[in-house]
Amino acid sequence: TIIGVFLLAFLPRADTAPKTAGISDMSYLEDKKGTMEKQKILQCIGSFMPVQSSTLFRGLSPSAFWIRFRIPTPSKPGDKLFLQIRNTGLEDIRVFFPGHDMIQAGTKMPGKTLQFKSTDWNIALPADLDSESYVYVRVKSDSTILIPLGVVDINGLLEGTFGESCAIAFFFGALLAMLIMSVFASIVIWNTNFFIYDSFLFFMIVYLLQLQGVQNLVPISGQISHSLSWIGLGYSPVDDPSAVTVIRFN
Q1: Hey, which of 98, 100, 160, 210 would disulfide with 133, CB 3.0 to 4.6 Å?
Q2: DSSP single-letter state for residue 45
Q3: How many CA atoms lie within 13 A of 197 on its CB side?
Q4: CA distance 135 to 72
Q5: What are the distances in angstroms from CA 132 to CA 72, 99, 135, 142?
Q6: Hey, which residues does 131 pair with through a beta bridge?
């Protein structure tokens, strides 16, 4: 697991990944102090570095990253389109459409406030968005800086959300069944150590829900969900580890 996490964070990735439909002229600027505002960023246009794909990957970094790109005119004018960021772990996302107020997303938000609720971040594009104007996205996160951008219409969004929902329901349904059976066994046997396992299993499910972005569907802060899961996983009411009871079934 440790090796897998290390590779996910630090393994180099090519900048020639397939382009996602709807994103063009993408470039980025690294704000190492994380203090620059949009007005300052607009004075640093010449410092933006081009990105050959619609995904920005920079591993683990304390910096804030500004992404600049255009969204071409849709083939079917009038369609409801969404800017999609397919990384549920990003903490602080700020989107700037020209002529509109800043839109915030990410796990540090107090709850899912976007128009379309799903496990990814989907921001509705304004109807008056000009294909020649640039959109700016600022991302700062303690998790891996992996920012895949794309544009989807409402039909594609619904289809993707349905598929994800089915997979999540199957996976977490199996975990919930395990928890129910474990609680039932704990009540029958009535042993403290079994209840400790139940607690661990419950908070593991909470952590996985947080990891998959399912907590974005409910009005709870991502920070609170993350803290609860880690506190619960690390909590154990047993003062003496040697007091563990071993039960043999003959």
Answers
A1: 98
A2: G
A3: 17
A4: 11
A5: 8, 13, 10, 33
A6: none
pLDDT at residue 195, as a whole number: 80
Q: Please state, in angstroms and rounded to a whole number, the distance separating the CA atoms of residues 141 and 107.
A: 9
Which token pair is 55? 């995904």
Quote the tokens at residue 12.
Answer: 């180099």
pLDDT digits (tens, 9 = 90+) for 82-102: 898 988 778 899 999 998 999
Kindly report whether the global pTM for this prediction surpasses the value 0.70. no
3-state helix, strand, coil in the chain (%, to 5): 40, 20, 40
Q: Which of 130, 38, 34, 124 is nearest to 84 (CA)?
A: 124
Cα angle at 149 between 144 and 154, to 5 degrees? 130
Whether 91 contacts 106, CB under 8 Å: yes
Q: State which amino acid sits at residue 238.
A: V
Task: Let me know: does 22 contact 135? Beta carbons within 8 Å.
Answer: no
In terms of Cβ atoms closer than 10 Å to its own Cβ (0-12, 13-18, 19+), residue 233 is middle
One-letter identity of residue 26 = M
* Vertex 23: Cα angle to 51 and 63 (nearest 5): 45
Minimal CA–CA distance to 54: which of 91, 82, 90, 27?
27
